[in-house]
Amino acid sequence: MLDGLSDIKYKIGSSSAEEVVASYLERIEKSDINAFTCIAEDATDQAKKIDSLNMEGPLAGVPIAIKDNISTKGLSTTCSSAILDGYVPPYDAHVIERLREAGAVIIGKSNMDEFGMGTSTETSTYGPTLNPWDAERVAGGSSGGSAAAVVAGQVPVSLGSDTGGSVRCPAAFCGAVGLKPTYGAVSRYGLVSYANSLEQIGPLANRVEDVATLMDVISTYDNRDSTCVKHNAGYTDALQDDMEGLKIGVPAEYFGEGIDDNVQKLVWDAVGKFEDMGAEYTKVSMPNTPYALAAYYTIAMSEASSNLARFDGTRYGTRSEGENWHMMASKTRQEKFGAEVKRRILLGTYALSAGYHDRYYLKALKVRTLVKQDFERAFEDVDVLMAPTMPTPAFRIGEKMDDPLSLYLTDVNTVPINLAGVPSISVPCGFSEGLPVGLQVIGNYFDEATILKAANAFEKNTDHHTKLAGAVV
Amino acid sequence: MVYENPDGVMIGLEIHVQLNKLATKLFCGCSTDYHTSEPNTHVCPVCMGLPGCLPVLNKRAVEYAIRIGLALNCEIVEQTQFHRKNYYYPDLPKGFQTTQYDYPIVSDGKVVIEGEDGEHVVRIRRAHMEEDPGRLMHMGSIEKSRGTLIDYNRSGMALIEIVSEPDMRSPREARRFLDKLRNILEYLDVFDSTLEGSMRVDANISIGGGDRTEVKNISSHKGAERALLYEIMRQKNIKRRGEKVVMETRHFDEARGVTISMRTKEEEHDYRYFPEPDLVPMRVGSWVEGILETLPELPDARRSRFISDYGMVDTHAKALTSDIRVADFYEEVASQVDPASAAVWVSDVLKGELNYRDLTIASFTVEDMVKIIELVVSGKITEKGAVEIIRNILDEGGSPMDIVKEKGLLKVEGDVVDQAVEEVLRENPQALEDYFAGKEKSLNFLVGQVMKKTRGRADARSVREMMLEEIDKNYR
Fold this sequence. Notes:
A: Amidase signature (AS) enzymes, 11-stranded mixed sheet, 15 helices, 15% strand, B: alpha+beta, Arc Repressor Mutant, subunit A, 3 domains
């Protein structure tokens, strides 16, 4: 069983942050799962500084991996895209400021799908991250590096971002715990935007309590993000394992066509486990779920087409040569963006164009409202919703790359959560043919406490998290 | 009299006003005080559009916009809403401009101007907030420059774009509208018109109900009038040839005074507007009452007050209030000397001398004006001497008293003048004879001779009276 935060803090106490960080750096060095896009050259110095100042703080000396789309001052931030090759942000994202204050050691940037556009980390310009349980399979995405690094024991905790499932999907595929917070709970300041109205930064770890600790650190109010909402944190304090009287809703629509039988069974087993712990469940209906996927992709691509307009080779990153500015910008985007990114920019541009705007973008916004209402109705009767995170366990690398639509379909159970903006956590609930399966626990707005509590109770009463992946060295 | 508008001219204006009196930019904390700074020194990750940066709306900018809306008699929107206007240009660091679309901050207002046939109402369609892009710079001319440099100091400055209805019927009305608007904005203390690029105008114009053209790149009010005059002539020529004016965007070449086609309607951008997800609506409906209470006195109100408080004529009141700096100057002067005299001296004399030299009121001090008026009112100098002092200060500097001493401008009276009158009459018998013969002009000549003898320090009007008295007494 891999060390959790409490184990690491104990080790730092009895040796030093420098030694602990060194041991993690060594594991990263030995690994070949391609979880990182770069390693911070100053990781050891950061650890030494913690030691010499005898710094306290909830994460003092704890190494952490940061998804490569979160701005880190002085440390390359490429979003796993060739267009940002060489870009080093001059500022820290809000969450990075908070992590540094808490004493965390930023050990490196983790691999991802280019600009977060993918479900497998295969669209990364650095190549795919390998699943720690099976090197022939994907780690999930887009925060594949963040999940794989945690499960392979290369860091105890990491940050990802979740636009349509990008934290929960790799958490499920790799067997990690991953939280997508309520929209507005964590400041997005410094997170390179893919689809602003959908995404949140979220923590990943091997234990629920470590995810809660990270949330306590990163989810403070920040006035630089206008969509950030003041709310109560105190997530770690909420972690009791008393499930007596918890009302679980199980949405039938999340167990539909395409959801693997083994996955369905493991999730129902998990619901049964909760019943054993004193919770009760009812079946609920969320009738607008079938439309969520189309609405999600329309909105995400529309926003992306605008968000990615700034990457024109003028100010930062790399550029291609052209005889004038327009040619330079055009060739830069043509040559440096990957195929999936270009596909989404094109589709998004189309959806926002005059004559199509109402038919696609506006309609998607209406569907979004309906999906939101599904959740609001459900939470009138239940405390949490439970469903499979992903329809299947991790698929093979390359399996879906030629068929983007089949890849988009794997997001069917994660995107409605982003459309609604509610929080959701994925926790390991068993294995199917040696591959981890994730249980998704969805909560009401700003009620992270309840889903963390449920996930924690489940973890305490199961042993899935104690199993070691093959990639652990 | 009703203005016939023989060519059926319809002019609508879109005016970009930089809210340069704000301390910070529209979406970040960068200082707006960049006009004398090195390029790219007033920038941050937000206004440079670095990846991951988010805008935060400047609340004061919204207040300014509402203030403008109220001064233009507009409706104020209940809550703010921003959109993205997507297009590529190197001065636009995010690849889109954050602006307002279907919910402008204010709409449906009006401004009353002095039209071709008296008071004329120009309706305001809307005014919306948006960010200024950066500025492209070239070494020398665009053609000869080795490359283009970008200065992002201006990037993210708060702009308000005011859009009028096509209610102006002549280039002169357009210019008067612009002057009036600038005046109102300066009274509101939201903008300083003296800073470069603070007010930029696009003009839409059509004649005889035909298609309109849009003229861009107009940088002054005079330029707007010239561009529109040219455009009317051009459109009339097209119609005379039996052709149709095409809807297009044209560029005003200020140096040559002509407009040049930029792009036709088919080449227009599709800006793919959609709501800015990074800005949440700000409820502002409840602010209106408070802002209304603190709204300063506006030009029209001040003009009426000048007439009632200082007993001046309307032409003076209008001249004094058409620029807030002049109005403030006047009121300071009027608080220390006779307001009626002050009105004449500031609006008729000082403004005339300033205009002649292309100077602003900033070139003259209240103290000097007060001193000069005091000297005239107390009879120490003549009106002519006073004008000379004003000219001297503007051309060479100096203080009124120094100039009086230096030029010997103290008025002479009594014996000296009496003596000069006697001498002149004695020395010019022919002129006197001519006067008796009915040549009124001879008297002017004689007065002139006295002025010459006293080196202009005598009061011409009293010299004339003294002269007539002396003639009656000793020469009849």
